């Protein structure tokens, strides 16, 4: 299925906190795209005063950098909520972290998957997943060579907050993306309208944010799928970046408040976190066969 001859503009949004992999990520994002001119990229760059991006990165076509003092940052989903403000009606959106590599013509790959799902009758496809790993110190030799699917991993105070992944069995035999139960916030590709339907809540701190976002997308009628082919790689080793909580001693309070919000949301109690009206929390728990709170 050709992706040419149609509006293939993609709004790319990247929250980046003191991450030395950001420049290489942006270079690869553009250099590997089939149509880099179709990318409109907003980076919410939370950094120290002596941390700067190279000129060849900031001059990439369509890249907008929102500079924020790292000490003023309120967390990853706060940064994501800022990035969403710059969506300008592009028909597609891509949510990434700041530590990725990409296959050649990755944009064609994800657009073809998305359009295949639409032609199969899926009204609101959402491609997501924990991408296979790469190692910045062993590039490109350290890249894993299989796509992954996601499953539950761990709880905190009874709340499901962490997910894991494992290789998709027999993935080379698949001809379409694999239905998914969970969402990864380091890779989401879907319709641009997602930025209106699922506005990131800055009060959700970090752990559990993927469960919150996946639930909210589900209730808005989005159906999640894992790519059945490799579209890129993610760096899971945090050596290249400084976590937000290392610079913010009050992160524990933010985390506890975030957990309280998640508990109410997952239990169906009154909350100011927005849900859609197409499906319910109970519908999602039935779908994933997992209770969000025990």
Strand order of the largest sheet: 3-2-1-4-10-6-11-9
* Known CATH architecture: Alpha-Beta Complex
What about the largest sheet? 8 strands, mixed
What is the CATH topology? Spore Coat Polysaccharide Biosynthesis Protein SpsA, Chain A
Shape, principal axes of CA atoms: globular
Which H/E pattern describes the elements?
EHEHEHEEHEEEEEHHEEHHH
Q: Measured on Cα atoms, how large is the radius of gyration?
A: 18 Å
Q: What are the low-pLDDT stretches, counting only 5+ consecutive residues below 50?
A: none
Overall description:
GO terms for molecular function: transferase activity. The chain is α/β, with parallel strands linked by helices and about 290 residues long. It has one domain (about 10-290): Spore Coat Polysaccharide Biosynthesis Protein SpsA, Chain A (Alpha-Beta Complex). Helices cover about 30% and strands about 25% of the residues. It contains nine helices and twelve strands. It has helices at about 20-30, 55-60, 75-85, 105-120, 195, 210-220, 245, 250-265, 280-290; strands at about 10-15, 40-45, 65-70, 90-95, 100, 125-130, 150-155, 160-165, 180, 185-190, 225, 230-235. The chain has an eight-stranded mixed sheet, sandwiched between helices. A hairpin with a 2-residue loop joins strand 7 (about 150-155) and strand 8. The longest helix has 17 residues, at about 250-265. The model has no long low-confidence stretch (mean pLDDT about 95).
């Amino acid at each position: 299925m050709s992706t040419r001859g149609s509006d293939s503009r993609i709004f790319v949004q990247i929250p980046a906190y003191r991450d030395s992999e950001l420049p290489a990520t942006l270079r690869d994002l553009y250099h590997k795209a089939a149509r880099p001119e179709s990318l409109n990229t907003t980076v919410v760059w939370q950094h120290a005063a002596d941390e700067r991006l190279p000129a060849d990165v900031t001059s990439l076509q369509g890249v907008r950098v929102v500079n924020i003092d790292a000490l003023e940052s309120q967390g990853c989903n706060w940064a994501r909520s800022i990035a969403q403000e710059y969506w300008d009606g592009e028909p597609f959106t891509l949510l990434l972290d700041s530590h990725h590599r990409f296959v050649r013509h990755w944009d064609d790959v994800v657009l073809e998957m998305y359009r295949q799902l639409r032609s199969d009758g899926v009204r609101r496809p959402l491609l997501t997943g924990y991408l296979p790993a790469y190692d910045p110190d062993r590039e490109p030799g350290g890249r894993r060579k299989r796509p992954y699917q996601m499953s539950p991993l761990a709880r905190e105070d009874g709340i499901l907050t962490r997910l894991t992944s494992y290789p998709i069995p027999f993935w080379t035999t698949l001809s379409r993306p694999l239905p998914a139960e969970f969402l990864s916030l380091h890779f989401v590709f879907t319709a641009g309208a997602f930025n209106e339907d699922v506005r990131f809540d800055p009060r959700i701190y970090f752990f559990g944010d993927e469960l919150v976002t996946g639930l909210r997308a589900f209730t808005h009628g989005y159906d999640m799928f894992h790519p059945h082919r490799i579209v890129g790689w993610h760096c899971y080793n945090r050596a290249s970046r400084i976590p937000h909580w290392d610079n913010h001693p009050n992160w524990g309070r933010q985390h506890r408040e975030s957990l309280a919000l998640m508990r109410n949301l997952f239990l169906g109690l009154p909350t100011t976190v927005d849900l859609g009206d197409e499906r319910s929390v109970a519908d999602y728990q039935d779908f994933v066969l997992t209770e969000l709170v025990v």
